[in-house]
Amino acid sequence: RILGVSGTLDVMTRYEKEVLARYGVETYLHVPSVYGKSNFSFDEGGDGLTIECSKSDFYHKICEDIKRVTAEKRAVIVFFKNMASVKEFTSSTFYHKLGRQKKVLSEDMVASEKDFVINKAATAKQITICPGVFGRGTDFFCKDAKVENSGGVHVIQTFLSEQRSEEVQIQGRTARQGKQGSYKLVLLEEDLGQTFGMKHGEQKGVPKAGWYKWLCDVRDRQSELHAKVVDGNLAEATKKDRNTHGYFDALLASNPSTAKSLFKEIYLAMKRPIPSTVVLNMALAIDVTGSMHKFSRDLPSMLSNLLQGQDSITAKLRVQFPELDFKLRVGVLGFRDIDDKAQQFEERTWSDGTHFTSNMTKVISEIQNMVSASSGGHDLAEDSLGAIHRSAKWEKNGDWSGTINCLLVLTDAPAHGLAPSEYSKIQNGDTYSVRHPAGLTAESVVGDMIAKDIDLFFCSFDPAATSRTEQRLANAYLKHAENMDEKEVACIPMVQSNQSMGTLASTLSSKH
Questions:
Q1: What distance separates the 2 farthest-apart alpha carbons in the chain?
Q2: Which residues contact 349 (CB under 8 A, 6 or more apart)?
């Protein structure tokens, strides 16, 4: 037998009742309040509901209602969706014009502070601002005769709850235990669009008296869609659970064929599906300081072989995966050192506004222009961490949206703070050996990369100089808490006699 008690039984959705029915709960008993008829007031077809088109009108309407009610010596409790919305309102000039008799209630307060604000909330002319979490179970009980005689506590809700039950709970913070109380919904049109997909001005096609029913209908439709998603996820999880149990049962029963079949099904269910078209976004962060000038003649042709032709990365991937269509998009960043200031970074956005393009002819031309003007650097270490950070932070529409994303850093110098110990004995070895001016570390830039699901290839024209940088980046990847796919840094020496760009293409293709 299952017995439950709910204060929101009247507003249970069809889906919620179906879920309870699965567990045999099909009988409901409505118990009337011991305090008799409710004195709760909500003018849902009139002034009890407004929808404002701008943030300033929204805040103005909230404050207008607060001032009206407090002028009657009543108390007002305003519920915002979350603490972020509370902070935005309390930072506005509207809030500061409400006078001194106001308090903010937040979850991070200690218990004694919360109790003080809650006990004071239902007193005459008191204004309390809080997030929606306090709409459930918080007892704002009114003991002030002035408030009760003037109409009781007034509640303003500034957002439409995604669940009707939450709304009922917030409404229940007033008119408690037979006392008087009123409630109002002040909504922002933009919020309705973001949460419920409503179009701008959609309410104008509905009579004002029918707004609340219209909002409830929209909410119910969204709830039904959410229920379908929940059921689909539950069915998938149930199947995985059944297969997992079956797999271990088969192992224990020494039934290898069944275990093998179930393991394959489990593996395929967990593995991300492979699309028919694979978009490879490749960013090239090229060191264009003076020390790289000796490679400026050969580097464009070497990269051209990587990006196009029979030894290119896409050509090798198509050999390995003939059933897939590979599309390569390339972005280019030239970088110098920190003290080069305005000339530190050279980057290109293309006609579609992104940093990546499929036009390899333009990419090679851009690389030629960059490396031909190699200059600057000032010290032996370079800002490769800054280059990684800047590339990972590309945010144009479509940047880093590929099926596979990778960044190739091409340099002959260590990163600042990660130079070999010998550099400390050399004048101008590492100007920023203690701290990067922007606070960048190997760990922080790796975090940028992992957040965008970007693989890192460190291509060194002086492996002895960059070995410590490579090791630190590799360790940062392996130890990062969010590196669930166990990504690693691929370190590729570019100056060994047996190392060519064809080998680089093979390394890139085999990694994926």
A1: 93
A2: 355, 396
- For 357, 403, 458, 496, the CA distances from 313, given in Å and listed in that order, are 16, 15, 16, 20
Alpha helix stretches (DSSP H) within 253-332: 256-270, 299-307, 313-320
Whole-number Å distance between alpha carbons of 357 and 379:
33
**pLDDT tens-digit profile of 294-350?**
888 899 999 999 999 888 888 888 887 788 889 999 999 999 999 998 999 999 888
Q: Where are the beta strands (DSSP E) in 47-171?
A: 49-52, 76-80, 102-104, 127-131, 153-157
Identity of residue 69: V
Confidence of residue 32 (pLDDT cuts 50, 70, 90): confident
Provide mean pLDDT across the span 21-36: 88
The answer to whether the beta carbons of residues 349 and 399 sit under 8 Å apart is no
CA distance 457 to 303: 14
Distances, alpha carbon 107 to alpha carbons 76, 129, 265, 313, 473, in Å: 19, 12, 45, 53, 39
Torsion (CA) 89, 92, 97, 100 in degrees, nearest 10 = 60
What's the DSSP call for residue 30?
Answer: P
Q: How far apart are the first and last CA of the chain?
A: 55
User: Which residue shows structure tokens 């590979």?
Assistant: 326
Q: How far apart are CA 12 and CA 32, in angstroms?
A: 17
DSSP3 helix / strand / coil % (the chain, rounded to 5)? 45, 15, 40
133 within 8 A of 86, measured Cβ to Cβ: no
The closest of 444, 443, 414 to 429, measured between CA atoms, is: 414
Closest of 383, 378, 377 to residue 440, by C-alpha: 383
Structure tokens at 484: 């669930």
- Dihedral angle over CA of 409, 290, 469, 407, nearest 10: -10
Q: What angle do CA 247, 250, 254 make, to 5 degrees?
A: 140
What residues contact residue 239 under an 8 Å CB cut-off, 6+ apart?
269
Closest by CA position to 460, among listed 429, 421, 420, 491: 491
The arithmetic mean of pLDDT across residues 405-420, rounded, is: 93
pTM given for the model:
0.55
Contact of 176 with 142, CB cutoff 8 Å:
yes
| Residues ≥6 apart with Cβ < 8 Å to 260 | none
